[in-house]
Structure of Helix-turn-helix domain-containing protein:
Amino acid sequence: MSGSDTPLDGAPLDPDGSLDDSLPPAEAFALLGNETRITILQELWLAPDQPVAFSDLRKRVGMKDSAQFNYHLSKLTDHFVRQVEGGYEFQYAGEKVVRAILAGTFTERVELEFPVTGECFDCGGSLEAAYADERLTVRCAGCESVYGRYAFPPGGLRDRSTTEIEAAFDQRVRHLHCLAADGVCPECGGRVDTNVVPDDEDALGLDVRVDHTCRQCQHTITSPVGLSLLDNSAVVAFHADHGVELDTRKHWTLPWCVTDASTTYDADPTRVTVTIALDDEAMDVTLDGDLRVVDTERRRAADGDDAGRVSAD
């Protein structure tokens, strides 16, 4: 596993690839393996203002023994919280721990199915969302064709209707891919390498796919090529010219976005073209192997462009 070659604040990397003065992962998790310390982090999060004085934080936690409380707080200090004038406040790592708890990442196990917007491009059947293993899958209820499967924290289901969950998932997928395409890992902030490759391993059941892989944590997001075009200015303008607001359409209802039926691929040099058809006009968007748009062309639509046709409603 390789790390980012430009660490935070320009700090040099040790020979083993870690940042100077970093805490070994096993020690970091060991520090959190105590109910009192987790409660300290949660109560610091819930405090209306920061920093929180030592005495106020102890009262919030409900521990009468000042020495015992100080012992547990000291184990968190410098890695998860820091002492400043006036009391204690979060380090970034401490905030991440609490957010993971709130998201249900370590504690909740949920399974759920519900109908979502759209029809299957293969059989015309209704689509449904299936949630399990902290991932939400959009698939056909009939033939089970899959139009997306991505991580979605269980906390994202809390206090939302199924319609709101559907909208939140759509926005999450859009933003995760935009971040990855911009070279930033949505998990750890590390550098991301993007490659357009043949789907030889049948990861998505397509002919060609996009892999976004973090150099640092090896987190990988895989998708059809078209998904990267949702925020492309030329593509957005093309849809707007035909009365379609692209940001309000669920991405799995766009055939050019979740399939490669209207995608052509050339290996040497790598060129992939996505064709989008609206009314009597089509747009060809050509990208290179790094997912950079190298050409766009608008033209009169032909019968062969129907695979990428977008409905107006």
